[in-house]
């Protein structure tokens, strides 16, 4: 990877930061004009789309160039707890770039479409602020390289979903739908949280790359609960899947979706 490509890859952290900056700017300046919030929101996600496209091209070119591909990672120390450094950072691999393109493309199209769909709404800027927050949370979730940032982003997605579902809060049906979605998805999030705790407990790390490397050593490891030995990896997988079931409205945690539509 040449220096220019490496410099572009090191800017990956900006992909979720740009929409969150748009979120802040809309809150500060959105009242000046109803269209200003839309322009700021679209500019933020469009910039994230272009940067995601550049990162994708570099990653695919590296993989097709016959070179052994290694995930590109970068992290900084976020906090120190005793002798333990808690690091925050991002990781980029083939799956990451695919999801970056999906998220930025869809959210960009949604924001452009919303120019006409939300035109005339008195809270037009606020809608774009919430949508920018939602986009930032999803993008942070995609590139996170550790469980802490992953879970924070996951919960931020839930908060943004709640705000968007209850956007027309003066309607009782919208508020009921938002509360229902928030409560039901929290049930799935409990499973996700417990699954992450199990993985951290048995691997001793929150870093995803280190955790993936440690997974083979957990084959056959069991967790004893009330004299019942449960295999750790299937247990963690089921708990993590519970979180996905809630967010994606799959049975039996699907009941919030019809009200939210």
SSE string? HHHEEHHHHHEEHH
Evaluate the radius of gyration. 20 Å
**Cα shape:** globular
| Arrangement of strands in the largest sheet | 1-2
Average pLDDT number:
88
What is the first-to-last residue Cα distance?
45 Å
Question: Strand percentage, roughly?
Answer: 5-15%
**What summary fits the major beta sheet?**
2 strands, antiparallel
Helix content: 55-70%
What is the strand tally?
4
Structure annotation, total helices: 10
How many domains? 2
Which spans have pLDDT < 50 for at least 5 consecutive residues?
none
Classify the secondary structure makeup into a structural class: mainly alpha
In terms of topology, how is this protein built?
Layout: H1 3-9, H2 14-29, H3 34-64, E1 72-81, E2 84-92, H4 94-117, H5 124-143, H6 147-165, H7 172-203, H8 208-214, E3 222-225, E4 228-231, H9 232-247, H10 257-260
Antiparallel strand pairs: 1-2, 3-4
Helix pairs in contact: 2-3, 2-5, 3-4, 3-5, 4-5, 5-6, 6-7, 7-9
Keywords:
mainly alpha, 261 residues, 2 domains, two-stranded antiparallel sheet, 67% helix
Structural features, described:
With 261 residues, the protein is mostly helical. It folds into two domains: 1-165; 171-261. Helix content is 67%, strand content 10%. The protein is built from ten helices and four strands, in the order H-H-H-E-E-H-H-H-H-H-E-E-H-H. The strands form two sheets. Strands 1-2 form a two-stranded antiparallel ribbon. Strands 3-4 form a two-stranded antiparallel ribbon. Helix 3 runs antiparallel to helix 4 (94-117), helix 4 (94-117) packs antiparallel against helix 5 and helix 7 runs antiparallel to helix 9 (232-247). The termini are far apart.
């Amino acid at each position: 990877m040449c220096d220019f490509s490496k410099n572009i890859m090191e800017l990956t952290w900006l992909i979720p930061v740009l929409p969150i900056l748009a979120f802040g700017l809309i809150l500060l300046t959105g009242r000046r004009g109803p269209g200003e919030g839309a322009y700021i929101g679209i500019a933020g996600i469009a910039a994230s789309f272009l940067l995601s496209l550049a990162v994708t091209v570099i990653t695919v070119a590296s993989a097709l160039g016959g070179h052994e591909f290694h995930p590109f990672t970068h992290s900084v120390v976020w906090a120190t707890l005793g002798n333990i450094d808690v690091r925050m950072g991002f990781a980029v691999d083939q799956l990451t770039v695919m999801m970056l393109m999906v998220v930025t493309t869809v959210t960009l199209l949604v924001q452009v479409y919303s120019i006409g769909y939300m035109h005339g709404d008195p809270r037009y800027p606020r809608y774009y602020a919430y949508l920018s927050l939602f986009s930032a949370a999803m993008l942070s979730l995609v590139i996170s390289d550790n469980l802490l940032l992953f879970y924070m982003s996951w919960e931020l997605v839930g908060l943004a979903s709640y705000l968007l579902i209850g956007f027309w809060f003066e309607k009782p049906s919208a508020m009921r739908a938002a509360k229902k979605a928030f409560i039901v998805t929290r049930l799935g999030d409990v499973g996700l949280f417990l699954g992450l705790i199990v993985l951290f407990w048995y691997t001793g790390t929150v870093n995803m790359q280190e955790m993936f490397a440690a997974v083979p050593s957990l084959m056959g490891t069991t967790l004893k609960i009330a004299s019942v030995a449960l295999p750790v990896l299937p247990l963690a997988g089921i708990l993590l899947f519970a979180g996905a079931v809630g967010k994606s409205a799959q049975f039996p945690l699907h009941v919030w979706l019809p009200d939210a539509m």
